[in-house]
Task: structure prediction
Amino acid sequence: MPLLAVLWAMSSVAGDARAQEPAPSADERAEEGREEGEEGEEGEEGDVEEIARVLSNEAYLETRGRHCAGRGRSQWVVTQLLAAQHNPDGALNHLRVGACFPLIRTPGVLYDYTNIEFGLINDLSPSFVQVGGYLQVTPLSFLQLRVDSSGVVYWPLPTSRTGYNPVDGYGSRYDPAVFPKGTGTVATGWNFNFVANFRAKIPFNEVWALLVVNIFHLGYWDVGDANYYVNLRWDLILQNQDWMFNNEAMLGVESRFNRDFGMRYGFFDSFRHVPESGYDGHQVGIFAMGWWPNPSDAVWDLTPFVRAGMYIDHGFRAETFSIVGGVTTQYRLGDL
Result:
């Protein structure tokens, strides 16, 4: 079920914090005063820097470094992505609990959102679970790199095409009709992922901005003992030890209604490939998401979203439609 890349793409674009962000608390203003006294005055950013502003997925950060969960200091952070999808049908809860540390404190748009984060990762769906660890580095404000590794367990449900389903080869049919209820089995394995996430925001004015996102995902899977099987996460046939990659591209606009809410909408292109078999899967469509920054002290970003598209190249879903919807919630649990 290819939900995780969808969710990363939907949650990767951040908002501009200049003048439109929620007003800081008295404690934050006092802290900023102390920081300015220690570090001295900072000059205003020029027009070129404003146009070139690129943001990580902190949604309402101030122009001075707010590296971790909207703060300029180390934080405990939690990210939860909860979604459901039709065609293929499924649901996924993705949870990351980690420690975030500012990386480069040099002022400027290239470094304002740099950080390093690591911790535990958990993915849970009705028919599989993954548990492991991750390391995420944002060396520049517009570029985020992540590696993660986790153990995998598949199990069957009383529905079609769930659990671990071996097939004869890359060219086998793997639509639900081939796997009636009760054909899946239990299997274990592990997974490694590398993700490179580029995202940029180019403001036109205080209301409108252009959003650009591209996410490259390279994954290695070692699951079960059959020669070939159906990978539920990506809706692909893989060997029991195999590589795949996925690329998610998004182009859209942001409109700000006020400092507390905005909308983002546009077009996406999703492409996945299995190098060993030469298989390509391709989907295009539209997305829309709300954006509610800083709704409480603990929740610093809440983003409901929906995405709908058509498969233009797929093993059996070509010229059919798919829809996914859900919510991304990001928390800060306190200073380290």
Notes: The chain has one domain: 3-335. Residues 1-63 have pLDDT under 50 and may be disordered. Residues 195 and 217 are 5 Å apart (CA to CA).
